[in-house]
User: What shape does this take?
Amino acid sequence: MSALLLTSYRRAGENTMKKTCIIIFIAIIFLIVCMFSPGFSLAEETMRPKIGLVLGGGGAKGAAHIGVLKVLEEQRIPVDYIAGTSMGAIVGALYASGLSADELEKVITAIDWEDVFSGDPDRRDIDYRRKKEDFDNLTRLSVGIKDGKIVTPKGLIKDQKVNVLFETLMLHTSGIDDFDKLPIPYRAVAVDLETGEMVVLKGGRLADAARASMSVPGAFPPIELNGRLLIDGGIVRNLPIDIVREMGADIIICIDLDKPMATREDLGGSISILNQMIDIMMKKNVQEQVKTLGPQDVYINPELGKLGSADFDKAVEISYLGEKAAREKIESLKRYSVSDGEYAAFTARRHREQVKEIKIADVKIEVEGESKISPDFVASRLTVKPGDTVNVEQMKEQAGRVYGTGDFERVDLHMKQQKDGYDLVVKAKERSWGPNYLRTGISLESDFKGSSSYNILFDYTRRWMNSLGAEWKTQVNLGTPSGIYSEFYQPLSINRLYFISPRVQWKQDPVDVYKGHDRVAEYRITSYEGGIDVGVMPWMYGEARVGLQFGHFRADSISGDADLPRKEADRGAIVVAGRLDQIDNVNFPNNGYIAQFRSISSLKGLGSDEEYNKVQGTILGAFTFHKQTVLASLMAGSYIGNDLPFYDTLPLGGIFNLSGLNSGQLRGQTMALGRLITYHRVGSSFIGDLYVGGSIESGNAWTKDEKNFDLEKLRLAGSLFVGYDTIFGPLYLAVGHTDGGYTAGYFYLGRPY
Assistant: This one.
């Protein structure tokens, strides 16, 4: 019995020892796992000081922040809080949202900032009604007329592309409306435009917060958030050190993009003086913040030389200078380096992949404004539908198609994540200065020999006169030619596919008569016309229309003897016209095409004194190869049947229309012209671009006594020019020559093709 008990005790002891060994083994494994787990690192992390990153404002100079972030990552320095102003708010938002420094640099350098800040939608996405206005020599600036007052846009720079860019860059933060819940807690600084108070943005949509912080007064329109009108925060807190301290930071790493004040030698004009005044205001609040830094904090002030806030094309260079400045502070920064394991855990927790494409669960539309624009009209412009998978570029295209109607000052895309994808919410805000618009235009022409002309244009358009989007357009021309044109455009459906358009016009146009080099006579054609068209406008591509046109024409001699067969005539005609317009820039195209056709059938049965048929057509294509652009075009016109009357002959001559001849120096019953125009952009500025180029042209105008389109009588011409793309239109300084000894210089403001 005792032996049995002894055996039992021995077995029990062995079992206990086995259990103890197993427990110890499990404990050791658990300890090893914990040591290399994020949880263990988190325990370590709670013992280290919290680091706050402060990113100052400075436009393009903000790329320096990326270089500093590279060094912080290289030195394994975790960032616990971020606050930024203006461009610092943008870089900070992207970094706080989970992007790495390398990803940030790729994003910033891949952006076409010139295009983004132009604000204009891609011209191919613009509604054709707005495209037509490009050929009327109108300026880019338009104002509204409201309650008898002139109303202007709230910013010089249209912010549409900026808004959509930020929305798509930060799409992966959809659903986060508390900035403390971002991978790194974040704050943006703005200013209440009405009270002047500093506003610290702690929540909402991240893209809106970053955008509000960079609303430079006068340049960008303010952003309304939570009932407050917000602008760039740099005026009150360009280096928000105190904001990061309030978030809980023990250590401050701040990047100040401030630069030395300009000397009197650098203050050459009003713009530089205005910039100096703004710098003085901002420098004061920056200095007050810098004074709060202690020996434990790190202050980085990159030396950027003459690189300025508009040098977005030099982002890589600026980033490098930021990196260089951070390396100069490397010993101070190393104090806050953590172990490889701890930093790996930090990176794993904060990194987020950008969303490149989404599946559309539903499409919702909201229109903000006072006019008759309906959500159905916005929907007719969209090409996406529930169930579609779209990428970032396709999302931008959708916003561009709505914005391209010209009816909205802002079109936002809000993405709301759902179980089966994302709800796409299109928020379209009507122009606050519409729907009555006034634009002006000017064209000038001089041959430096005493022959010159000018035209000043006033264009008034009243949009959305009813729920289908009817428009009333009236134009007044002063100069050469002079006249009044008025059209009422009535769509027949909400998508504007079909329309009806009555119109009236009065016009006076001088006509010069040449014999060889000499002008021998001048007469003036006065016309009174009215008509009505029906047509189709397939989206933004172009339009086709057919209609009836009635008019009375009179010729009055000004000088010399024009030898006209008759002085007055009535016309009733059927007019067929069509146009496709997919050119990317109407002033200096890079790519795309334009094709147009027009025919007039004058019939005695409609009241005409003379029966005749006239057809005209033009095709133009633009191609760019390694920054060299070539325009190739062909245009021709002719009569069919009876001769064209005095008021409807085909003119030719002038810059790019047989350069070297005067405008309209040739007139005939048939006309043809082929030309190649090439140009290269040699300079660019905020105001416009500078080009140099030349042309080769061949064509002629044949009278009724000559063989139509006689190739043996084609005339050869060419030109050399300097061109400048201004807000008033393309400006040319050119010299041209046509065979036969015709040479002319040109000062030309307008669109000659």
The longest strand covers residues 518-536. Confidence is low (pLDDT under 50) at residues 1-14, 16-44.
